């Protein structure tokens, strides 16, 4: 597509070069026609030819400058893609770390509660064992061997022996339970310390990723500044937007050609004014309004805070999840029966091609990839390639 733009500009410039040259030649012949009838026009002809040569050199230099500018811009756009992808990877890693942090913190809380309960159980068991030991000590004055050898009052002796056996069994059971509690408490305490160490490691990793994110954002900002210094004319801007839109259309047409319809994907035809917007925010550009020249917005641009979750409007399958020139990090969802929704300029993409997504499921995080001036989401709904007004579907 860049080749198309470069060829277009160069071909236009070549056309203008030919026209200017013809005009200059015409002026040259017109100015020199009377001079040919006189012997003093040789110098005028030489001057005219010299001027024509200077103009042609200036045009050639301008052609070279435009070619170099387009080449440099193409390189910067590739660098912008690299910067956007670097930010996306770091942001996704941070998002995963935050999820792990939440799980780890929850485990630590649960283990702390379990540890507290085990300590209470341990204390109760210690008190019970102490009570049993005191009871055994107070009855220890009865010599068990003497009772066995004493033949008097055999029935009383039998009851006493049975009582001792019962007490011993209860004591053994309590001791075994106490040992199990101690072992479980040790295990929980070890796991608790492990999770605390894991939490600290995750925090350190998150800090490292935050630093990487700042570096990547600074690099992206530098790239955008270089791009902004290369001012485009209105016609060049129109051609750029037209090329990007055509690039999107070609990508969507290719996706439509490989879609394998799923039985349970019924499209959006019966869901007008029933769907939720993918993100809450102020609408910066509405469907159908003027974009540049004769181009109009095929969707809506919604302003939203960076890193806010982008949610799919309906269940479907991820058809595209990658960076696309002019749209940055883009996700396209197939909803069945020729209906698609697309979400552009994300900071990071949370779903991969082929994954099934459900209504309201997070699929990306708000960003400003692709050169967007401020954080936001570009959102479209299409049916068999035709852009539809999202306002008729989302409420």
List the helices and strands and how they pair.
Layout: H1 2-36, H2 42-138, H3 144-149, H4 154-229, H5 234-258, E1 282-285, E2 290-292, E3 295-296, E4 300-303, E5 309-311, E6 316-324, E7 328-336, E8 339-349, E9 356-357, E10 362-366, E11 376-383, E12 386-388
Helix pairs in contact: 1-2, 1-5, 2-4
Question: What's the β-strand tally?
Answer: 12
Low-confidence stretches: 1-36
Helix run count? 5
Structural class, by secondary structure, is: alpha+beta
**What value does the average pLDDT take?**
77
Strand portion: 15-25%
* Secondary-structure element series: HHHHHEEEEEEEEEEEE
State the domain count: 2
Helical residues, percent:
55-70%
Radius of gyration, taken over Cα atoms and rounded to an integer in Å: 40 Å
Coiled coil: 59-107, 224-262
Protein name: Peptidase M23
GO molecular function, one term: metalloendopeptidase activity
Keywords: Coiled coil, Signal
Question: Main traits of this protein?
Answer:
395 residues, alpha+beta, Glucose Permease (Domain IIA), 2 domains, 10-stranded antiparallel sheet, two-stranded antiparallel ribbon, 5 helices, 12 strands, disordered N terminus, Cell_wall_metabolism_enzyme, M23ase_b-sheet_dom, metalloendopeptidase activity, Dup_hybrid_motif
Written overview of the protein:
The chain has 395 residues and is of the alpha+beta class. The chain folds into 2 domains: 1-231, no CATH class; 234-392, Distorted Sandwich (Glucose Permease (Domain IIA)). Helices cover 61% and strands 16% of the residues. It has 5 helices and 12 strands. The strands form 2 sheets. Strands 1, 4, 5, 6, 7, 8, 9, 10, 11 and 12 form a 10-stranded antiparallel β-sheet that branches. Strands 2-3 form a two-stranded antiparallel sheet. Strand 7 (328-336) and strand 8 (339-349) form a beta hairpin. The protein is elongated, with a radius of gyration of 40 Å. Mean pLDDT is 77; it is low at 1-36.
């Amino acid at each position: 597509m860049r080749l198309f733009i470069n060829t277009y500009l160069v071909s236009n410039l070549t056309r203008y070069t030919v026209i200017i040259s013809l005009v200059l030649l015409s002026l040259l012949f017109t100015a020199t026609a009377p001079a040919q009838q006189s012997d003093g026009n040789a110098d005028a002809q030489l001057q005219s030819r010299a001027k024509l040569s200077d103009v042609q050199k200036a045009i050639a230099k301008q052609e070279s400058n435009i070619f170099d500018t387009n080449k440099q811009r193409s390189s910067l756009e590739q660098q912008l893609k690299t910067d956007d992808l670097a930010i996306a990877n770091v942001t996704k890693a941070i998002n995963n770390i935050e999820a792990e942090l939440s799980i780890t913190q929850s485990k630590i809380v649960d283990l702390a509660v379990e540890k507290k309960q085990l300590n209470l159980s341990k204390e109760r068991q210690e008190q019970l064992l102490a009570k049993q030991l005191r009871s055994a000590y107070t009855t220890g004055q009865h010599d068990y061997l003497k009772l066995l050898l004493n033949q008097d009052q055999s029935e009383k002796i039998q009851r006493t022996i049975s009582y001792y056996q019962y007490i011993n069994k209860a004591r053994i059971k309590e001791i075994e339970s106490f040992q199990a509690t101690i072992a479980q408490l040790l295990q929980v305490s070890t796991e608790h310390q492990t999770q605390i160490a894991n939490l600290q490691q995750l925090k350190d990793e998150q800090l490292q990723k935050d630093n990487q994110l700042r570096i990547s954002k600074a690099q992206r900002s530098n790239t955008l500044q270089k791009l902004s210094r290369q001012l485009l004319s209105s016609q060049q801007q129109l051609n750029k937007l037209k090329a990007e839109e055509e690039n999107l259309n070609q990508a969507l047409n290719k996706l439509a050609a490989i879609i394998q319809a799923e039985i349970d994907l019924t499209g959006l035809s019966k869901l007008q004014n029933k769907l939720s917007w993918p993100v809450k925010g102020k609408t910066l550009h509405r469907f159908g309004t003027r974009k540049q020249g004769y181009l109009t917005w095929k969707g809506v641009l919604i302003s939203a805070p960076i890193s806010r979750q982008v949610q799919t409007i309906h269940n479907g399958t991820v058809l595209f999840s990658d960076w696309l020139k002019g749209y940055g990090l883009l996700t396209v969802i197939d909803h069945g029966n020729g209906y698609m929704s697309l979400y552009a300029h994300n900071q990071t993409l949370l779903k991969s091609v082929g994954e099934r997504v459900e209504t309201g499921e997070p699929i990306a995080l708000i960003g400003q990839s692709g050169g967007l001036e401020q954080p936001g989401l570009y959102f479209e709904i299409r049916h068999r390639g035709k852009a539809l007004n999202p306002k008729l579907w989302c409420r």
